Amino acid sequence: MKKLDKKYFLLVILLFFSLFSYFFNESPNYSIDYTQEKEEGLISEESASEIEENFRIIVHLAGEVNNPGVYQLKEGDRLVDLLKTAGGLTDKADLELINLAVTLADGQKIIIPNIEQRNREENDFKEQNSIDLNNLAVIAGENNGSLININRADLNQLVELSGIGEAKAQAIINYREENGLFQSKEELIKISGIGEKTLDNIRDEISLR
Fold first, then answer.
1. Are 98 and 51 in contact (CB under 8 A)?
2. Which is nearest to 175 in space by CA: 164, 162, 189?
3. Which of 105, 119, 120, 128 has the smallest number of CB atoms closer than 10 Å to its CB?
4. Quick one: pLDDT at residue 14?
5. How many Cα neighbours within 13 Å face the side chain of 92?
6. What is the predicted pLDDT for the residue at 46?
7. Which ranges constitute the DSSP H helices of 88-132?
8. Where would I find the Helix-hairpin-helix DNA-binding motif class domain in this sequence (predicted)?
9. What is the DSSP letter of 102?
10. pLDDT at residue 56, rounded to an integer
11. What is the pLDDT of residues 5-47, one digit of tens each?
């Protein structure tokens, strides 16, 4: 093939590829270096720049990175390439929550998370789901064996309470069976025959747990 024919043939191929990428918005996941073609005069500087532009993506980078902003990269580049371009991560970046090997996409926004924020959230979760040691101490005190558990005690145990005879003891059991476990000591006054005075007499003798 003559050199002139070769030039035309290459130009036609490049033009076809460029038009295909433009109309179908599809580009291969690799970049092309046109240095040799430009040096041989097979393609102009302007045409090379236009074709190379079709292989570019624009990505927004934010969060714990030294130089956040909008970056232009080659299609197929990965997050690690973007971070190198942006000057790397800060010392507060949470490496466990990012995938350095992820492939970037045009128009994508990537936020590098803060490790201190994750630590705060984990601590808040632990605090919200931890046992209140003060309440635990109270519960332990109530279960020291000297108190009568009104949610578990039988008739013989209940009659040991001050001012509680068999009738009131049975009324406590009946109430418990009909309404469920007592949620507070004050709930006892809902039982017929047990008033504030009786409750005050047995308040320090009973427990709920």
1. no
2. 189
3. 128
4. 57
5. 11
6. 59
7. 115-128
8. 156-175, 186-205
9. P
10. 84
11. 555 565 556 555 555 554 444 433 333 444 554 455 544 555 5
b/e code 177-201 from CB counts within 10 Å (16+ = b): eeeeebeeeebbeebeebeeebbee
Distance of CA 204 to the CA centre of its chain: 46
How is residue 169 written in tokens? 């003891």
* Alpha-carbon gap, residue 78 to 45, rounded angstroms: 27
Domains of the chain: 3-53 (no CATH), 56-117 (3.10.20), 133-207 (1.10.150.280)
Which residue is listed with tokens 């803060």? 114
Return the ∠ at Cα 56 (arms to 25 and 97), rounded to 5°: 100
Residue matched to tokens 């006054």: 189
- Which two tokens mark 125? 């979760």
* pTM of the shown model: 0.38
Tokens of 120: 């705060």
